[in-house]
Amino acid sequence: MAAQMESRIIEIPAALDAGTEIPVTTIRGARPGPVLALIAGNHGYEYPPILALQRLRTALDPAALAGSVVMVHVANMPSFLGRTIYFSPVDGKNLNRAYPGRKDGTVSERIAYAITTEVIERADYVLDLHCGDGNESLRPYVYQNITRQPKMDDAIARLVLAFGIDHIVVDRDRPTDPARSIYCSTTAITRGTPAMTIESGFLGNADEPSIELIVTGVRGVLRQLKMLEGGPAPVSRPVYLDPTEVIASPETGILYPHVERDQTVGKGTALAHITDFFGRQLAVVEAPIDGVVLYIVATPPITRGQPVACIGAPRTAPRTLE
Q: How far is CA 92 from CA 99, 126, 263, 293, in A?
């Protein structure tokens, strides 16, 4: 195998709406090995993953690599250039709820289809890289999907520990139908490919610690997969968040958060209150369980049904699968 780096554009032609493009870099190593896909920018306002891949693109030496690393630098270019949280400014859809996409759908669905067919289905492992969006004050954590398939669950668990972030959300409720996978990482898992989702960064910041945490985590995975000889060791003292609860807003209005990311709260703690646009209080949002604040929305706008916060109950090991 000839070691090399190649960059290209996946074109998404105009159809029902405007077209776009997806910048991708493939680093082919000097020795045989697996294909690891790194996907950044499913949400365009999440900058640390995008910047981490810029750094890794020049830092990874093809001659020292076994296998290949495929980097999707910005999955959701309309959202990135439009500086929008969650939703595309073109079709109003959340790309990370549009997988596996449709070839003849709206632009978010066409992006999802292209990433599914040209990246995910050609990979042996997938990392979906996220952070707190422009409205979310978030502490770093990762997701560990539970499929109840021992071989898959073991492979995912190894990826999660290798990434090195110590707070791990145990997720048992992701879709199982490959045709309705919804999420990027679940699209890989439902096709038999181990995958995980990473969260590192907050409030749309491009801060150095959040970027470097992703860079270091990827190196840990490369070490675990024997794609690089060196790299950081797996996390030694993981904290499993099990269960976790995402608390949706009961009202549309102005949000006033009462807690900080990574704060420990008890059930019934007031996480935030919401007023209308004349200052009249509409609701108080309370913690449904004891746990750690994984993220809290920390900007004023809030819409009914959108997340306000996520709380996770810390454990030294996940609960039993039954």
A: 15, 26, 33, 28
| CATH number for the domain that contains residue 115 | 3.40.630.10
What average pLDDT does the chain have?
A: 97
Rg (CA), the chain: 19
Q: From CA 21, how far away is CA 107, in angstroms rounded?
A: 10
Question: Three-class SS of residue 82?
Answer: helix
Same domain, 289 and 197: no
Number of residues in the chain: 322
Residues 154 and 41 in one domain: yes
For residue 256, give both structure tokens. Answer: 């006033």
Q: Listing from the earlier edge strand, what are the strands of the sheet with 253-257? A: 281-286, 270-275, 253-257, 301-302
Q: What is residue 66's three-state secondary structure?
A: strand
Q: How many CA atoms lie within 13 A of 256 on its CB side?
A: 12
Q: Would you say 61 and 30 are in contact if contact means Cβ atoms under 8 Å apart?
A: no
pLDDT tens digits for range 234-291? 999 999 999 999 999 999 999 999 999 999 999 999 999 999 999 999 999 999 999 9
- Which residues, at least 6 apart from 173, have a Cβ–Cβ distance to it below 8 Å? none
Q: Per the structure, how many domains does the chain have?
A: 2
8 A C-beta contact, residue 72 and residue 39: yes
Residue with tokens 């590192």: 200
